[in-house]
């Protein structure tokens, strides 16, 4: 599959990275000679963070090409995403050029504010043009607001939503077009209030950021606005909340539509405070700090199958069937070493090696059909014994893979050898014995025939492999 990305700035670069890391070939067109350097920098960040969200290996990365003309970029594209600067006349010119070559391809715009009917004006084929508004960093945040106009082709829009899901995004379909869609209306309201607070000398940029990140920003990231306020109404819920805080809206606490004058004085005040607050980091450093924090948040939400984490789980589930079943060297999981995994010795703490092994054995169990539905039916595999060997030091940010070899298996027992590796070099091995149990009875019992069929197929394929030299090794034994 080929995506054409027109405009390779902050957002175009993010789209390119998301498509590439999900296995699409990508052609970028941007007349700025510096665009390839900037996209490479975005791609480097994306490679560090996006794979760490996934428990199923991402497909092989697609090919990136910088096209020398817009026509070359869009020729043969299955999907086109326009991310040029936010000017309607420029976007119209770009669409005219695109649709001379590719009039039928889906043509999404990253526009933060324009309505699709504005974008479609004068187009060769308005029906294929729509808004697909992403959030920065596009390669990590799942939301894309998908906004059609009455002139858009509904079947094409459904196809676009499938494409976005296939690259791990959450398409939020807006039923009516509106300036700035849904999310940017909030962002703008908050932004306007913040500018007033700085201009009026009430708060600095740093104090405003603390007000967000120490409190309500954390709530919004996992429950949004209405669910959060429902809880704030206590046991009486939303009705009590509205009765208590509804009247404040008329006082008013906010300046609403009043916009501060963007004169040099205000720009210097905000830019100066922002330099004092964050100028000790480069933008690239801030991006990497942001990305690693986002990976941490998103992984927690994924563990809880909640909010944006649920989107990540669904993306893994959709790719799980494509994982090679019989190849013992193929990684079953990928992990990135997160800040909270580092101990006082400055490397990954020992319990995380067991965690990496558990993620790997869980992946094997899902492959053979001993998944969460199977567990809900009252059967599971329990770990009876684990032997861990620590062979290397995993450090913050390292990308680890987990692969498994089945050493032996019968109706009740599963004996496996797992290798946790960095850049193909083992940092740990874990040998494990798992027992199949009837959970209600608290006793071992034979696994279901369908599970055994899959398990024995893997066991028999792995029987041809050399037995790992360290299998069966005990503490205190000589070097193996
Ligand atoms: N920066 C942000 O936070 C977000 C921006 N957006 C939207 O994404 C779009 C792009 O914004 P950014 O990436 O931030 O801007 P940017 O300024 O980083 O990138 C725009 C790119 O478009 C290129 N360009 C200009 N004319 C072109 C042409 N004729 N053909 C191909 N490329 C051309 C420029 O060289 C530049 O690299 C805008 O519509 C914006 O509203 C959407 C979500 C978030
Ligand atoms: C500031 N902005 C309007 C360009 C922001 C967006 O469109 C979305 C985002 O990523 O915040």
UniProtKB/TrEMBL annotation:
GO BP annotations, alphabetical order: carnitine metabolic process; fatty acid metabolic process
GO cellular component, one term: cytoplasm
Pathways per UniProt: Amine and polyamine metabolism; carnitine metabolism
Location of the protein in the cell: Cytoplasm
GO molecular function per UniProt: carnitine 3-dehydrogenase activity; NAD+ binding
EC number per UniProt: 1.1.1.108
UniProt binding sites for NAD(+): 7-12
Broad enzyme group: oxidoreductase
Domain of life assignment: Bacteria
Matches recorded under CDD domains: 4HBT
Reactions catalysed according to its record: carnitine + NAD(+) = 3-dehydrocarnitine + NADH + H(+)
Record-annotated 3-hydroxyacyl-CoA dehydrogenase C-terminal domain positions: 182-246
Chief subcellular location: cytoplasm
Record domain 3-hydroxyacyl-CoA dehydrogenase NAD binding: where: 2-176
InterPro entries in UniProt: 3-OHacyl-CoA_DH_NAD-bd, 3HC_DH_C, 6-PGluconate_DH-like_C_sf, 6PGD_dom2, HotDog_dom_sf, L-carnitine_dehydrogenase, NAD(P)-bd_dom_sf
Keywords (A to Z) from UniProt: Cytoplasm, NAD, Oxidoreductase
Subunit and interaction comment: Homodimer.
Family membership: Belongs to the 3-hydroxyacyl-CoA dehydrogenase family. L-carnitine dehydrogenase subfamily.
Function: Catalyzes the NAD(+)-dependent oxidation of L-carnitine to 3-dehydrocarnitine.
Name of the protein described by the UniProt record: L-carnitine dehydrogenase
Organism ancestry: Bacteria, Pseudomonadati, Pseudomonadota, Alphaproteobacteria, Rhodobacterales
């Amino acid at each position: 599959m080929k995506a054409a990305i027109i405009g390779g700035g902050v957002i175009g670069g993010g789209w390119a990275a998301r498509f590439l890391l999900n296995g699409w070939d990508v052609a970028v067109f941007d007349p700025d000679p510096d665009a390839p350097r900037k996209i490479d920098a975005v791609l480097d960040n994306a490679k560090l963070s996006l794979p760490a969200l996934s428990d199923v290996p991402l497909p092989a990365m697609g090919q990136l090409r910088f096209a020398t003309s817009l026509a070359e970029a869009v020729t043969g594209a299955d999907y086109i995403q326009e991310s040029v600067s936010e000017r309607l006349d420029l976007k119209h010119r770009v669409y005219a050029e695109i649709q001379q070559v590719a009039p039928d391809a889906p043509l999404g715009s990253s526009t933060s504010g324009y309505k699709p009917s504005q974008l479609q004006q004068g187009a060769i084929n308005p029906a294929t043009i729509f808004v697909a508004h992403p959030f920065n960093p596009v390669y990590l945040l799942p939301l894309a607001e998908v906004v059609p106009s009455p002139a858009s082709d509904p079947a094409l829009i459904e196809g676009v939503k499938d494409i976005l899901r296939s690259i791990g995004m959450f398409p939020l379909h807006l039923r009516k077009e509106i300036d700035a869609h849904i999310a940017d209306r909030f962002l703008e309201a908050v932004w306007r209030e913040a500018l007033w607070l700085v201009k009026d000398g009430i708060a600095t940029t740093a104090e405003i950021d603390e007000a967000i990140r120490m409190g309500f920003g954390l709530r919004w990231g996992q429950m949004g606005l209405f669910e959060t306020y429902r809880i704030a109404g206590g046991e009486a819920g939303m009705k009590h909340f509205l009765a208590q805080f509804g009247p404040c809206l008329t006082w008013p606490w906010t300046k609403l539509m009043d916009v501060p004058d963007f004169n040099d004085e205000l720009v210097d005040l905000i830019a100066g405070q922002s330099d004092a607050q964050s100028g000790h980091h480069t933008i690239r450093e801030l991006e990497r700090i942001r990305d690693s924090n986002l990976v941490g948040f998103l992984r927690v939400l994924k563990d809880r199958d909640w909010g944006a984490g649920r989107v990540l789980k669904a993306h893994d589930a959709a790719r799980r069937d494509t994982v090679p079943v019989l190849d013992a060297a193929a990684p079953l999981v990928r992990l990135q070493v997160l800040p909270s995994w580092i101990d006082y010795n400055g490397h990954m703490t020992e319990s995380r090696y067991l965690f990496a092994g558990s993620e790997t054995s869980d992946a094997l169990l899902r492959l053979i059909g001993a998944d969460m539905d199977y567990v809900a039916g009252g059967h599971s595999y329990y770990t009876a014994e684990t032997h861990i060997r620590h062979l290397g030091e995993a450090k913050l940010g390292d990308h680890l893979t987990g692969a498994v070899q089945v050493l032996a298996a019968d109706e009740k027992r599963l004996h496996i050898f797992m290798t946790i590796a960095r850049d193909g070099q083992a940092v740990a091995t874990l040998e494990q014995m798992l027992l199949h149990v009837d959970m209600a009875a608290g006793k071992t019992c034979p696994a279901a025939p369908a599970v055994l069929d899959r398990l024995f197929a893997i066991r028999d394929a792995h029987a041809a492999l050399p037995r790992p030299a360290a299998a069966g090794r005990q503490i205190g034994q000589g070097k193996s």
